[in-house]
Amino acid sequence: MDNSLFVQFVTDSTVAREGFTASYEFLDLKEACGGTYYRESGVIKSPGFPERYPHNAHCIWILKGKLHRQISLNVTTFNLEEHNNCRYDYLEI
């Protein structure tokens, strides 16, 4: 069995901002919208970053690591549409 980290990016049809970038690495213990990653480290980002992300995007990234390893995710940029309950655009980890 392996460890997985599920990351989802969703936007609505109204406000668009610059979006986000995040780096990840698997600790010892595609520019496309989403994908499954097996590499030890890399960068995922919203489509088009650093330009504004597209409306109605729904991106899912799956980061898969080896058994007995943890996954560290460091969100380095975060600029999404603001709403009290993150109702419209959000990054779910």
TrEMBL record:
Domain CUB positions: 33-93
Keywords (A to Z) from UniProt: Disulfide bond, Repeat
Domain of life: Eukaryota
Pfam families reported for this sequence: CUB (PF00431)
InterPro entries linked to this entry: CUB_dom (IPR000859), Sperma_CUB_dom_sf (IPR035914)
PROSITE patterns reported in the protein's UniProt record: CUB
Name the UniProt record assigns to this protein: CUB domain-containing protein
